[in-house]
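Practice problem: Tonoplast intrinsic protein
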Amino acid sequence: MGPTMLAVRFQHSVAPNALRSYLAEFLSTFFYVFAVVGSAMSSRKLMPDVSSDASSLVVVAITNAFALSSAVYVAANISGGHVNPAVTFGMAVGGHISVPTALFYWVSQMLASVMASLLLKMIVVGQHVPTYTIAEEMTGFGASLMECILTFALVYTVYAAGDTRRGTLGAIGPLAIGFIAGANVLASGPFSGGSMNPACAFGSAVTSGSFKNQAVYWVGPLIGAAVAGLVYDNVVFPSHAPEGVGV
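Answer key — structure tokens:
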């Protein structure tokens, strides 16, 4: 790719429509992180011993499902409703967005997450902002692998939900994305935390000042997202495949 093509892509990344996309990503990610981190704080307030109370896990899972479905829905027609650097990375690997645009998405998502976590800390005085942690019996590699698998499922669902070949079925896309996120939290919450979102993990870590095992929530999700995009577009449902195959 020559310098001219890079310049053109960068110009497209700072066009008015692109700027609106970054704002949409910022707002959706802010809403999502505020709800998810806030629900974790609420659980700790109502159930101090959250480690032994299964209902706290259900609360966080439901919040993830509801918040992500809503966040994706409100931004889908503007930015695609990524709400997650891993989703953005998966889309960039698949060639659906340019690298400069993906980087601006990342900046918007990271800023939104940090601001949402900081605002929660300011509002709920004296309440610790929880961070994603891995279980004592889990290794960093094991937690990364789990986050990789979870994010693969999430991004694969995002690809399927946004596929225009699905016709009217695409209308329920945001719900499907929220459902898989909530299910993943139920499956992994006590083990790896069920983040699937580097921005959410980073924002809470910045606010709490603890970056322990932060690499788990970047390496795993980014690899899982990249593999999901490549598998969906090139193996399971390539663009040259005839419609209706397998139906």
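Discussion: The longest helix spans residues 16-46. Students who identified this feature from the tokens alone can consider the problem solved.
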